[in-house]
Amino acid sequence: MTASLLELSIALSDNERTRPLIEGRVAPQGIKPVVTVVHPSEMFWRQLRFAEFDVSEMSMSSLIIAASRGDTRWAAIPVFTMRKFFHTSIIVRTDSGIAAPPDLRGKRIGVPEYQQTWAIWSRGVLQHEFGVHARDIEWFMERNPEKSHGGATGFNPPPGVRLHHIPPSTNIGDMLLRGELDGALLYLVHPNLIDRSTVDVSGVTRHLFPDPAAEGRRFYAKTGLFPINHTVVVRRSLLERHPWVALNLYSAFVAAKEEIARYGQSHLQWYFETGLLDESINRTLADNDPLAYGFKASRAVLETIAEYVHEQGLSARRVKLEELFVVSTLDM
Fold it and tell me: What is d(CA 295, CA 332) in angstroms, rounded to the nearest whole number?
């Protein structure tokens, strides 16, 4: 007699580390996944506002902020499906007079959402690497309270930060084209329910860092940090009934990552960006995989984002990492 599988609704973004799960090539033991592919911006909003899925990717910053304010519906497993040197995505208008990070002081900078992890990492690097504080910049936020992560977690601008909400009649892209913004911390144009920009702004903008990959390598060489954006969360109420789910899910995500490492090619871009791809790649990556899953391997990165969230006035208190992750995964 075959044991029945536990059916779980799972929301994932479409990237190479999740595709083996999306396509069914990898499945968690004892679980029947019902997978919905969703853009991360929309996914996090739907989870924070409506708790639609049993399992999903989640904004690391929004998870920290929610926990600091008493929302404990979600527990994370140490799977990190999105990493990037986020500050290297900053764009500026070519006529803005911004040649280097210190020139951002006093400028009008757009951001889809002030509390999103990508923005927090970028502001943290600007502050700690280049001496530019969030209070030095005039911010314009595209997402409105009804369709934002912050709208679900009680966001208010931190003291001393100048933040304007972009009216629904326009967006970051149109404001960049009209010269009403000097730049954007990041620019999202992928269709989803909450982001509004769609226009191509490449004709009037350039990257703040002329060689983003080189800046990423510099930052990694100095700090050893490859910033995390997304983790994976599970309903705590589900884990109370089925505690085995956390480890089985973790094992499946690890298997998906290992499949890509064996057969994929594009994953190598991450090693090029971090400067770890060299003639001793096998030894180097065995000692220090910048894409590693597991709580222990990523603790320094996680501690940094938790500190940035609190330092930037977005969490009600400094959240301990052990509060966020499933207890059975802390030794991984």
Answer: 6
